[in-house]
Amino acid sequence: MSKHEDILNSAEWLFYNEGFHRTGVAKIANTAGTTQRTLYKHFASKEELILCILERRETSYWHLLNQLEAANQRLPLPKLYALLPFQALQDWYQTRASCGCFFMHALAEYRGKNSAIENYVENHKQRMRATFVRLLSKDGFSDTTTANTLMILLEGVTALSALQTANELCQQAYQCAENTLKNNTIKETKKA
Fold first, then answer.
1. pLDDT, tens digit, for every residue of 93-103?
2. Per-residue pLDDT at 67 exceeds 80
3. Can you give the pLDDT at residue 94?
4. How far are the Cα atoms of 142, 168, 185, 187, 188 from residue 192, in angstroms, in the given order?
5. Domain coverage including residue 146
6. Do 178 and 155 belong together in one domain?
7. CATH of the domain at 23
């Protein structure tokens, strides 16, 4: 593993488990087995390091979701696409512990202090909502209220996963989302 990756991994773990402001650059460098000087060769600031971790986490989640979406397209009877973010989150938690939403932790500690971090988190949440809208469209739904409902369910799982078993929460949220989509299908059928 490269020194760059060592720093990212160490910082991510420390930020997630100890907080952003409580974690100093010296501790990150020490945990990564390097010096502060080397850390600053890779990242201009602690905030840049945080942004890189946010981007890396988002990219990893999108990769999981894209794999599920591609696999779903190959099925003879595909699942509802709008349920795939819940499956991706469950897959995510198979290899990662949870202390809640990393993005919301970053926002809580940097709101009003660092617009780049604040903007990244807000844009991430908007991208997630847009993904629900896109997936719902593939399932034949067009209302944004359902996208908001599913987003709330997914965010709830992420927040509560710090207190409860993530796998169980994902399964419960998946069932709630599936019921929401079934109820909306029934409503649409009655309208027609």
1. 888 878 889 99
2. yes
3. 86
4. 14, 36, 11, 9, 6
5. 54-191
6. yes
7. 1.10.10.60
Sorted by sequence, the CB contacts under 8 Å of residue 61 that are 6+ apart come out as 88, 89, 92
Please report whether residue 153 resides in a domain.
yes
Handedness of CA 103, 109, 112, 117 (dihedral sign): negative
Q: What is the pLDDT of residue 187?
A: 56
Token pair recorded at residue 65: 């979701």
| C-beta separation of 161 from 100 below 8 A | yes
CA distances from 69 to 21, 41, 77 (A): 37, 38, 13
Q: Are 137 and 69 in contact (CB under 8 A)?
A: no
The total domain count for the chain is 2
Q: Is the pTM of this model over 0.85?
A: yes
Contacts of 65 (CB under 8 A, 6+ apart): 84, 85, 88, 131
Asked whether residue 32 falls in the same domain as residue 91, the answer is: no
Query: What residue type is assigned to position 47 of the chain?
Result: E
Asked if residue 175 is part of any domain, the answer here is: yes
Residue 88 vs residues 67, 69, 112, 124, 130: alpha-carbon distances, Å: 9, 10, 31, 16, 16
